[in-house]
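We close this part of the discussion by returning to an individual protein. The sequence in question and its structure tokens are set out directly beneath this paragraph:
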Amino acid sequence: MGKKSVWVLTVLILISAPLLSGDAAAKPFYEGKVMKIIVTTKPGGGYDFYGRLIAKYMQKYLPGSTIIVKNMPGAGDVIGTNALYFSKPDGLTLGTFNRGVGMTQVAGVKGVKFNMAEFSWIGSPTSEVTGYIVHNSFKNLEEVLKADNMRIATGGIGNTTYITVLLFYKMIGQSNYSFGTGYQGGEVELAIMRREMDGNFGSYDSRKVMVEGGYGRFVMFIGKTKPTGHEDVPFIEDIVKDKRYKPAIDLLKGINLVGRPFAGPPKIPQDRLKVLQDAFRKAVLDPALLEQAKKSSRPIDYVSPEECEAWAKSLIELPPDLVDSIRSAFTAK
């Protein structure tokens, strides 16, 4: 090979090098690989919906991959979250879990083996607004707070519902409630409609169809913005006005920021993690995904891995008095 041919070949290699970034860089590893997304809830419901939606569209941005979804419910999301935490950090296992499961770590709940601050964060497809939804026989929050006993449907002790109920009623100094555990997804709506349960703290977007159908009513919200048509419904800070509880309210509002978090086990290599984060972001913003989510009345509001990581680390930096409140809340009933 002459000097000119060598020079031309070198130039071609240098020109093509940048093309190996992004999706092309993913192909040598992910081509032919089977990935798994652990969903820590039962099939059906919001977390399962987003898990399957993300699995479908991430494949497009991880060339040659196949992504399957595995539901691992139990112990208020603790079982599946533990399993994700101890998965091999090879970039082939991701998971999505109830954003309230981090409270079990703060509370020191038995059986929790994960550390939220150590997960390899991928991002979230949306932020959330939490609503206190009750059977439509209740007209407003005032009636709810006067009830002899509010039976609250919840998935379990690691669920956002559980800790939110405990903190809310603790902050207002009432104990006229009880729990019904093991309810997830559409089971919550059915339980309230049948009057097996009286209410639930859950995602506005997961429960709004029930309200639109005339079977339930929102009586309080936790979030940044009130949903259209519910402007008269109070925020939690409108009800809990004692300034000493502001850190707790900020915590509950922060949980809503991360919405439906996705993460991998700790110590995924940074180069592979970057590929996963990029594929996740592209999937979330894919026009076809946006259209499918819209048809299913599911919001999309991309949350970055950096925002998710900051939230996770904040859980281990909570004020001692708030940590004590969370721990006492978990052992109160």
